[in-house]
Amino acid sequence: MGRNVLGLGMGLSLLTAAQLLSSFGIQWYTVAHLGAGPDTDALYAGTTLLQLLSVVVMDPLSFVLVPLLSALTGVERRRLAWPLFLGVGALAALVTLVLYSAAPSLVGVMVPGFSDATRQLTVELTRIQLTALIGVACFTLLSAFYQARDRFIWTAGALLLCSLLGWWVLVMALSSGGVRLAAWVQVFVLSGPALLLLKALGAWVPGSFPGAVTCLREVGVRMRPLVLSAAFVRTGFVADRFLTSFLGAGSLVMLELTWRVLAAVVRIFNQGFVTPVVPTLAKLAQARAWEEFVAVCRARLVGVAGLSALAFVGLSTVAIFGQSIGLWSGGQPGQGGITSQEMATLRMTFFACAGGLLCGGVNHLLVNAFYAEGETGIPARVEAVASLGGLALKAFGFLAGGLLGIAVAISLQYALAGLLLATAFYRRMLPRLRECSSGPVGRCVSGEPSNRPR
Description:
By secondary structure, the protein is mainly α. The chain is about 80% helix and about 0% strand.
């Protein structure tokens, strides 16, 4: 079983790495072709509402659904599939219509430092990219059904396929379509994978709506603290864009481009080393096999931390020596593309943001360990505290150092969250391990439930 999990993790890591490399290629090609300026600032700012809903609603939905569906039988999952799919899709469509109408007012609040022309373009690009919300919602649900059956490869493969097709369209038509084409390509990349996962729904099962209503209630109860936490913890990019809108043109896109590279690496590790183990952790927690639960978490923490450190060394090498060996070249001011000065700013921003790379994977694993046992309140409170501290740090960093000050604040926020999560996890697991050691030998290793109250 260990070899199967390791092989699955390696396969997922490779697929996710290819998908994220393709996704980053789309972003880099767009910025390199159009330059770091008002148009690309508007493009990245135009993703804000979609990203906000993704991190506040869709990510918590996935965190809750995977352990919940993993504990059900195959028959029970088939009964829930279509009602949940229709409900989630209809709700996403309604939210899309509401935000489409409210986009001008919301954009004015999110990026008040933009010029009038850039703000108008941001509204247009926001409306285009909001159309991807339905596809993102459906993909979140469908991928949860796949993962609950320990089937991870095709979900990552669907993302890769759509990303490659989107990149091809961008390369062929960006010169004529400009920034608006780049926005539509993003819609395709985010929505297309849902179409490739429709097989997960299976056949319609009559009389399945009552069970779906009960499931949705349970999902709502478990999601509530996660949504509140995400509103604090995972919406820092809104503050980043608000602050960078007051800096020079191109500042927003340079911070976003740098951060997306780091976030992409973290996501590769999460997909390869965290996602495959969540169903296992959920089953161990259900059986109260705490010694094995902690052992699995410890092994994954060591692996993710080590890989994050290696990734930092590798990216640092590329950042320092890449230009000298011809991996990229700066453009000329006024001629589009990334200038040498902008490349220098990107390198400095990378080092300032590196705390997100070093701590991101570890934090994600600790949060999922809590979720796997059905505990959502503790990580929600811990991350909320770290996020509030991060907002204060970003405000100070903006005043003291502009773009680089904001980047340093991001690193400090991730480090603070990691410290608090590790402390909370240790305190929660310690009495359970003591309970195991004081009972019959092997009781908490074999998975035999304890007779003591939980």
